[in-house]
Amino acid sequence: MRLLIMGAPGTGKGTYAEGIEKHFGIPHISTGEIFREAISQKTPLGILAQSFIDDGHLVPDDVTVQIVRERIQQPDCQNGFVLDGFPRTLNQAENFTRILKELNIQLDLVINLLADEELIIRRITNRRLCSKCGKGYNLITIPPKKEGICDDCGGAIYQRKDDSEEVIRERLEVYHRQTKPLIDYYEAQGNIIHMDGAGEINEVTNVIIAMLEAR
Ligand code: ADP
Ligand code: ZN
What we know:
Blueprint: E1 2-7, H1 13-24, E2 28-30, H2 31-40, H3 44-54, H4 61-71, E3 81-84, H5 90-103, E4 109-114, H6 117-125, E5 127-130, E6 136-138, E7 157-158, H7 165-179, H8 181-189, E8 192-196, H9 201-213
Parallel strand pairs: 1-3, 1-4, 2-3, 4-8
Antiparallel strand pairs: 5-6, 5-7
Helix pairs in contact: 1-9, 2-3, 4-5
The structure holds adenosine-5'-diphosphate and zinc ion.
């Protein structure tokens, strides 16, 4: 099963993609996570990506497309994948369509998550991450059991630099300007479904899984 999960920042893409990964045993690929990993390791990719990300802008398309092209050809993607946060521009989407054709694989479904802006901002400002394993937390809805420490791996919990309220506004604008038009692109391909990203995590995850199983 090959899926894309789209939506504005804070609609829950990463969270629900993790649920899909667990349930269906297909890897969750987050371009944002790949960049954050590269930044923390100070690789050339990380150094390049950091300034764009910190300002709430997108990493250049050619870099991003190349990363995804390589990642989806890894052996763990043989039975599918759930891509989170890619494509984010029309140019990325067109390139992705071309790559899929080259690799002779088909995209099964695009899930577009909806949530209102107030909820998005509330979620993002309360969002925290594990610096070691990347697990996501929310200070209000899913706080770590011990303050500042990851439940799963004991790593330190931190706030993303781009999760400040000022940068979120910019990211939302980038979303509206550059990513939202992709909805029409996938509507034209006829394989997009819109789902409510608000609501409790397990509930929404179960609705998405049930929808996927019924297909
Ligand atoms: P969110 O969905 O909450 O914005 P992500 O982890 O998906 O968080 O993305 C974080 C940042 O990483 C983005 O704001 C952007 O700078 C960069 N990024 C992620 N995916 C892409 C992409 N497909 N193209 C360009 N930049 C990307
Ligand atoms: Zn952890």
